[in-house]
């Protein structure tokens, strides 16, 4: 299974960005998925996750009501919609997947497959 993240870039504070993560080599609906981010000099942080049955979901408090994870199983793509972006959201964002029920927003080791990361910079 391979994950290819895209959609990062430079955006002004208050703006929006949608990250995509294309999944190949596997059926997306069999995977729990998550998004993580890592800012320079900081540890990797879980942003959110969604289970394969869409029943379980989780977001870190700092992005609640601003970020939304979704998945389009038919297109083998998952998304991270980011609204009202702040400078502190600047980081490299990674998508991750695991062929397991549920999902984990904090335990990176739970995931089996990772995308290469896409850089998001929020700055005026």
Q: What does this molecule look like?
A:
The chain has 124 residues and is mainly beta. It contains no helices and 11 strands.
DSSP strand tally: 11
Low-confidence stretches: none
Rg over CA atoms: 13 Å
Strand proportion, as a percent range, falls in: over 45%
Tally of individual helices: 0
List the helices and strands and how they pair.
Layout: E1 2-6, E2 9-11, E3 17-24, E4 32-38, E5 45-50, E6 57-59, E7 67-72, E8 77-82, E9 91-98, E10 113-114, E11 118-122
Parallel strand pairs: 2-11
Antiparallel strand pairs: 1-3, 3-8, 4-5, 4-9, 5-6, 7-8, 9-10, 9-11
Question: Which keywords apply here?
Answer:
124 residues, mainly beta, seven-stranded mixed β-sheet, four-stranded antiparallel β-sheet, 0% helix, 48% strand, globular
Outline:
The chain is mostly beta strands and about 120 residues long.
């Amino acid at each position: 299974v391979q994950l290819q993240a895209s959609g990062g870039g430079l955006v002004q504070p208050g703006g929006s960005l949608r990250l995509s993560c294309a999944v190949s080599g596997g059926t997306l609906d069999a995977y729990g998925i998550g998004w993580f981010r890592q800012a320079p000099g900081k540890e990797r942080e879980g942003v959110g996750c969604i289970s394969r049955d869409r029943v379980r979901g989780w977001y870190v408090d700092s992005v609640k009501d601003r970020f939304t994870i979704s998945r389009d199983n038919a297109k083998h793509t998952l998304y991270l919609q980011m609204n009202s972006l702040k400078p502190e959201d600047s980081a490299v964002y990674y998508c991750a997947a695991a062929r397991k029920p549920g999902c984990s927003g904090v335990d990176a080791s739970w995931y089996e497959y990772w995308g290469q990361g896409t850089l998001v910079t929020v700055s005026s």
